[in-house]
Amino acid sequence: MLEDQHHKVIDQYLKHYAEWDIDDIELTEQYQHVLVIPAFAEHPRNLEACWAKVSKNCLIIVVINAPAPEQRTLALLSYFHEHYALKTSGSYWSHFQQDALPDLLILNRCTQGLYLPVKQGVGLARKIGADIALKLIRRGQIQKPIIYNTDADARLPADYFNRKLDETSAASVYPFRHRLPEATEPRRAILKYELKLHHYRAGLAWAGSSYAHDSLGSLIAIRAKAYAQVRGFPKRPTGEDFYLLNKLVKVGGVQTLTGPRIVLSARPSTRVPVGTGTAIISLQQLSLDAPYYYAPANFYRLKSLLSAMQSTSDGEDIETQLDDASSGFLKAMGFSEILLKLSTNTKSPEQLRRAINEWFDGFKQLKFLHYLRDHQSPNVDLRVILQSPWIQDPTFSGLSPKRFRMLKNFTSSH
After folding, report:
1. Which residue in 211, 65, 225 sits closest to 129, CA to CA?
2. What is the reported pLDDT for 2?
3. What local confidence, expressed as pLDDT, does residue 1 receive?
4. Which of 71-75, 78-82, 196-200, 404-408 is predicted with the least confidence, judged by mean pLDDT?
5. Which of 39, 98, 311, 318 is most buried, judged by most C-beta within 10 A?
6. Do residue 114 and residue 231 come from a single domain?
7. Is the Cβ–Cβ distance between 97 and 87 less than 8 Å?
8. Which residues are CB-contacts of 288 (< 8 A; sequence separation ≥ 6)?
9. Number of structural domains the chain divides into
10. Claim to verify: residue 305 and residue 242 sit in the same structural domain
11. Which residues contact 325 (CB under 8 A, 6 or more apart)?
């Protein structure tokens, strides 16, 4: 009965919300796993290094995409046709087999008539690949009902598919680290950026948030039913990973995995408006004492707010437990009217608390931190962040002792 319900949810998604790309895909092979990778302006060596350690019983779906003619992307598409054995193909896809390596399903979304809209970019590329993966899972051609996702410049560990995923969670997120450049300034830049990611997630975890996970598309594994429930990846040029995970928390939660890390690129890039590449460029121009990080005081305020929301019986006592800045945010969000609506639609204090948690989701918690940054406690520098309890505690921070020492050395040598 439960399996029938899963199939119904997936079937509805495939019929009403999947991209047209799924219609023409016809494979006969069976696989244990499926992995989706979007690729734009990538060198073939990056992709081959990405899956070099992955077991052969996997189908890798590569969505080669561009918004307009782009020579590096066209060269990537040609590379697979020139260097891999073609098994079968359709109007815009090709199925390749490799000796002792996983099979490849290459999608052409980078030539005339197949370009992706600029405003949909990587989000649509991920959605196309994941929709195809979902179709193959539903047909029983992929044994494990998980849609694994990463990026073309990531390096996956040998045990990537062997990690124990929580069956009750909607998705799982792998741990990560960046490859460190040899040059001093780029190395400092990537470590500061990496710390910003850890600081944000660890601060949320320390505050008791249900939305405390890394939001990087290169780290995500999604259960098939949950993917269908939230209607797939948002078609956005950036932030698609954040918004998808924000919805997945509400249908089953997001698990943070432990073990060997996925290794990510630290290369400067302007290919997307927000992300590691652009951060590296901007951070190399900032001094060590630049206010780049959310103030720890604002995570303390978040902890108080979440505690009040998680213990309330009717919602009326929440604002009485907050300082003026936090109360100001709730007023700006029209929380009184929202609380009235939530109270009307729930039948018990437990249901109300759950509804408040869904309303005050990861996106609104980010808005809360931005509001406090702009109205109460502005951003702070590296020295302050290294003193925060969630960064000093590796169980929260996710920082290795070596990474922490390197960051401390920056401050002592400045």
Report:
1. 65
2. 47
3. 42
4. 404-408
5. 39
6. yes
7. yes
8. 188, 381, 382, 410, 411, 414
9. 2
10. no
11. 301, 371, 372, 375, 376, 377
Instruction: Examine residue 278 and state whether it is found in any structural domain, yes or no.
Output: no
Position with higher pLDDT, 99 vs 379: 379
Burial of 189 (0-12, 13-18, 19+ CB in 10 A): buried
How far from chain centre, in Å, is Cα 263?
Answer: 15
Flag the least confident range among 31-35, 273-277, 360-364: 273-277
SS3 at position 213: coil
Looking at the structure, tell me whether residues 174 and 300 fall in a common domain.
Answer: no
Statement to judge: residues 227 and 122 lie in one domain: yes
Position 387 in a domain: no
Do 309 and 369 fall into the same domain? yes
The share of the chain scoring above pLDDT 90, in percent, equals 84
- Which of 220, 209, 262 is closest to 369 using CA atoms? 209
Residue appearing with tokens 């560990």: 157
CATH label of the domain that carries residue 7? 3.90.550
Question: Tens digits of per-residue pLDDT, 192-240?
Answer: 999 999 999 999 999 999 999 999 999 999 999 999 999 999 999 999 9
Rounded to whole angstroms, the Cα distance separating 290 from 269 reads: 22
Residues 328-370 pLDDT 10s: 999 999 999 999 999 999 999 999 999 999 999 999 999 999 9
CA neighbours closer than 13 Å in the CB half-sphere of residue 192: 30
Is residue 286 a part of any domain in this protein? Answer: no
Query: How big, in percent rounded to 5, are the helix, strand and coil portions of the chain?
Result: 50, 15, 35
Contact 126, 107 (CB under 8 A): no
Tell me the three state secondary structure of residue 363: helix
| pLDDT over 80 (residue 97) | yes
Residue 246 sits in the same domain as residue 157: yes
192 lies in some domain? no
* Structural domain range at position 250: 2-184+212-272
